[in-house]
Amino acid sequence: MEETYLLNYPGVKKKILAGGNGPMPHFPPGTKLVFHFQTLLDNFERTVIDDSRKAKAPMEIFVGKMFKMEVWETLLTSMRIGEVAEFWCDAVHTGLYPIVSKGMRLIAQGKDPLEGQRHTCGMGNMFHYNTTGWPELDELMRTPQALIFIMELIQVGDPFSYKRESWIMDKDEKMKEVPSLHLQGNALVRQGRFREAAKKYQEAVVLLRIVLSKEMPGDEDYIAVDRLITPLVLNYCQCMLELEEYYEVLEHTSDLIHKHKDCVKAYYKRAKAHAAVWNEKEAARNDFQKVERLEPRFKPIVNQEMKRLGENLRNKWWDWFPVCGCATGSYW
């Protein structure tokens, strides 16, 4: 197929590798585009640096929702469903690709795609990086260059037929969704459905953290949003306690305590988790004592927990007694 420039879009060449099916789709704002892609260097070897099929899931973007690689929307909306096409894109269109690629790779690893980014625009992040963590992406950041994208358009969705993804919501939509998720989580807790409740709390925290990433640290809006995160994380941790996933509790409560030194409930839940995983008795005891110092009215509860901790530790050592040969009463 002869290469041609896309209409009114200089710096892009398209070659159709496999024709699509049916008429040309319509692409109104909000249309969901599902596709596979490969990214290749424009060199003799045509080195492949990304392949969505290796991530075992196709890529999704939404028309008109300011995806950082704006050229991809132009490429995809030139295609029919089922079409496979190769696009050559000049460096003017690929400057942000390393940032986009890093985010996609982190998502594939189950990590936060905003990890390592400062509070700035995408192009600003390019000038403030140390390393993406991938040498080939670091090289693209140092030396922007033309890239080749091979794309297969799999599906074109009705913009009103799906639940809106969190990353395409605007700030107001995210903030309106959070109370609903919180209430749904609470309702599931009352039904004893802790795993499902934890997921609702987690979704709400993700929305708030996305909003937080756009605010300036120290501003009133930043502080207000940050305050909404704490009770949701605590609720999530309570669900994890119920599900006996104690190390998850230790991780998230420790993060909270690092940020909020006087968070009584975080100390209490962390103490419970320490006790449950047989961490050294001092770790649980110190947290329980911290709870009592911060909130004296919790003293009866702390005393009860400390008593239970001592009994559990004695039982633990007693169970070990026949094996280790320790003298009875040596530690108590």
TrEMBL record:
Keyword check for Glycoprotein, yes or no.
no
**Where is the protein found, in the record's own terms?**
Cytoplasm
Limits of the AIP/AIPL N-terminal FKBP-type PPIase domain? 26-154
Name any one Pfam family assigned in the record: PPIase_AIP
* Major place of residence: cytoplasm
InterPro entries per record: AIP/AIPL1/TTC9, PPIase_AIP, PPIase_dom_sf, TPR-like_helical_dom_sf
Which UniProt keywords are present, listed alphabetically?
Answer: Cytoplasm, Repeat, TPR repeat
SUPFAM superfamilies linked = FKBP-like (SSF54534), TPR-like (SSF48452)
Q: Which GO terms describe its cellular component?
A: cytoplasm
> What would be an example GO MF term here?
peptidyl-prolyl cis-trans isomerase activity
Q: What is this protein called?
A: Aryl hydrocarbon receptor interacting protein like 2
Query: Which species?
Result: Hucho hucho
